[in-house]
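S., here's the first fold you wanted:
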Amino acid sequence: MSELAKPSLLGAIASLLYPASCTICAASVETGEYLCSECDNQVSRIVPPFCAKCSEPFDGAITSEFACANCAHRKIHFEAAVAAYRARGIVRHVMLNFKYGRQMHLRHLVARWLVAALDDERIRERRFDAIVPVPLHPARQRERGFNQAELLAQWVSNHIAVPLRPALQRVRYTTTQTAFDRAERMQNLRDAFRLRKNTDVRRLRVLLIDDILTTGSTLSECARVLKQGGAQSVYAATAARA
């Protein structure tokens, strides 16, 4: 049996022994799928109008480009941060189970959501020189066992054929951001990141990757460090936006 035939045969046998099921409701789904059509229809896609800088959605009939109050009243260091889905309901459930429940198979579904964000017109036609994941502090990565942003960045790197460069490191362990407002988040993250030793990002067009965008504070601080190191531009993409 050829090496190429083995994985497909093993996959076929596995699908017979362990039929694919929806990760939410356990309904039968096609092999390689993670959500049934009913659950997939409940996933909330981000549609215009939204902030041109951070993708925060708004209700109403805004037709011109605009920046939300969050971005208009502080310095944001990335050019734009795009996201395809709202981190609510099923999306939030899937991402929490992947990130904290160690259900590693869900990375494929989250990665699909992230790849969908790459079709955003703000980055669709742009050329990038490097894919950079948002790093975890070593202590947190040991605790979790993996860096979700790095796994997703590797997927994106393979998908668009742009090299993965783990250019950043997290040097200060920060407390959870969830209890902080926007100003406190920025202060909490100050000097939390730096370029890795002997890393050169000068003149690079960077695509920064993370799993979820909340206020954009983490992405902005990472972008600041990259630009301080000479990066030409920094765009960011995430699978979902809070």
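And the second, which I think is the more interesting of the pair:
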Amino acid sequence: MIYSSFHSVGLYFLFLIPGLLIGIWAQIKLHFAYKKYSKVPVESGMTGAQAARRILDDAGLRDTPVEEIPGRLSDHYDPAKRALFLSSDNFHGQTVAAVGVAAHEAGHALQHQAAYGLFNVRMAMVPVTQFASTAYTGILLLGMFMHLLPIALWIIIATFSVITLFQLVTLPVEYDASSRAKQQLFRLGLVREDERAGVSKVLDAAALTYVAALVSSILMLLYYITLARDNRR
């Protein structure tokens, strides 16, 4: 029994640590890329909000509001409200980082407008993924308390499969939004050719955080599958 407990803990950290390290690395890359290009002004002098507004208006999305919200890198597009929300730094910032992030969020609005398939799949998965993300811990504790751990583990595997699938769908959605952002920024002349690299570095660093989230989800799913198989022996 003691061996089994130590084995489970050791197995947990074996799967947890690689995902954790990749996540930390991705966050560090994003931090330094964003910090660097938050100090580089764009030649156009446009704020992130103005750049997003220009992209949206050009696409005929004049009714899509661009609003300011508190927090750092809390930027997002809300498909339910059909509104774009930018953190204060990016809303008011006249930098390569601010314009790049704002354009990325506008890219999500363009995906919504174009009925981009994976964007719609991701949007449909949000409620069930939110439930799965909060339910699996309770299911594990309930299974342990009621001595039904083998059954609980397979339920947890099902919930983690949903989370992993969501992360798998999210990754190409984020890369596509960045691609749309870059295309519109350059097509509309909102950034210069020599500012292209800075925009790419910020958006690529942000995308790495989604790669890290996917890797972490896959590793934890594999952990629970391994644990379930061990419990069957």
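Why I say that: The longest helix spans residues 149-187. Helices lie at 2-37, 48-58, 88-92, 96-113, 117-145, 149-187, 196-232.

Talk tomorrow,
H.
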